[in-house]
Amino acid sequence: MKKTLSLAASLVVAATCALGTALPAHAADTTGTATVTSRSLQSAIDTSTMSPQTKALAERMLAKLPPDWESRSRAAAAKYGIDDSQWSEIRESVINPDDHQCQSTELKTWARSLLLGAEDPFVIFMLSIFDGFNLPTYDALIFGTESPSNTFGTNGEYTQKLTAEMKNLKRFWDIKSSDIQLIPLHGADIFSSPERVARTLSVLYGGTPESQLELAEMFVEMVNMEPILKGGANPIFSFNAFAYTEEREPNPTGIPDRIIVGDGILQGMTGVGLGDVAPRAIVSHEFGHHVQYEDDLFVSDLPAPEATRRTELMADAFGTYYLTHARGEALNTKRLLSSEQSFYEVGDCGFDNPGHHGTPNQRLSASSWAASVANAAANQGHILPSLKFAEQFDAKLPDLVKPDAG
Q: Which one of 47, 123, 246, 351 has the lowest number of neighbouring Cβ atoms within 10 Å?
């Protein structure tokens, strides 16, 4: 497995979906999710009420893209693990949503507000169609490097906390981890440099960075055209956090093991009052995925939604066990509750979605269970081997995901 998009990948698109009612009827499905194809995109542009400036720029971009830009974009997403299948198709439900309480969370409400009030919703629409919101993610994943000069947070406010967290996690878990890198994901940085946009577009659409420079300048122009995007500084561009590995990949690209943390997700957690503990919870969760990679814990006979839910809840549990343990962060009760709330906030209700991560209640339950394992241990100085902890988690899993609707 290459990549686990966790925490916020779905919200990047979900936030744009809030604009669905402003889009041409044939350019959105019943949920508002953009479904435009190359065959209908020009028609959508022609029949829309977008401003002449936006229309002209969209047509220039469409003319500059290769004829098979859609398939190239999908191929890049598959190659690097940017999994958007949850938005392209709805699969048959494998569990009954009515059996589970699944409510929205403050974090999702916060994220969905990021694009409200856009002066020209069609700028948002075109950027989503052309994968513009994913450009910073590709840039961080493929071209990001670990460096003492890296900063985390819009003003570098989380840099010390997160870098210290990585060192502690590497000491705590019993896996090979010296090669795991911590990489920041910023939004405005890439859109202030057409050259960086161009090298990323060359990954998505082919060609050389030099040949993509003109198209890159158009992307920068489009981002700067809509004030609410703040030149790429809007948190929507960096509202993500994920773990990446090429462990056991038959055709590795050479990207090292890494954890990428975006400014947007840190802003979001701060926005809902969890800025103290949530950044640690995010990194410890993503490190939990690397434990799974190294221990080969992704293997499962479960169907896609339930298999993904298992790995996500297990990563929540790995993260909370570390945060609670006396030799980890040893969080006190108050801060532990904030940590558990962090996992609750990123639950989702996509029961039939192959990328389903667990409901808010399920994620909270997994976190609470892991805390109890650490707190109930007779020897508070003993760290359970990761495989032993995973074994206990799998035994507990049916109880964590049982129906909870009353």
A: 47
pLDDT in tens, 370-392: 989 999 999 999 999 999 999 99
Provide the 8-state DSSP code for 65. S
CA distances from 142 to 138, 206, 264, 340, 345 (A): 6, 15, 19, 31, 28
Query: Residue 99 has what pLDDT?
Result: 47
For residue 239, give both structure tokens: 């509202």
What gap in Å lies between CA 123 and CA 229, rounded to an integer?
A: 10
User: Which residues lie across from 34 on neighbouring strands?
Assistant: 28
Q: What are phi and psi of 335, to 5 degrees?
A: -75, -30
Low-confidence stretches of the chain (pLDDT < 70) are 1-40, 47, 82-105, 302-304, 333-359, 404-406
pTM: 0.81
pLDDT at residue number 307: 79
Burial class (CB in 10 A: 0-12, 13-18, 19+), 163: middle
Q: Which residues does residue 259 pair with via DSSP β-bridges, in sequence order?
A: 182, 243
Q: What pLDDT is stored for residue 163 in this prediction?
A: 95
Write the DSSP assignment of 288-321 as a string of letters: HHHHHHHHT-----S-HHHHHHHHHHHHHHHHHH
Can you read off the two tokens belonging to residue 201? 């577009």
Angle at 318 between CA 6 and CA 289, to 5 degrees: 40
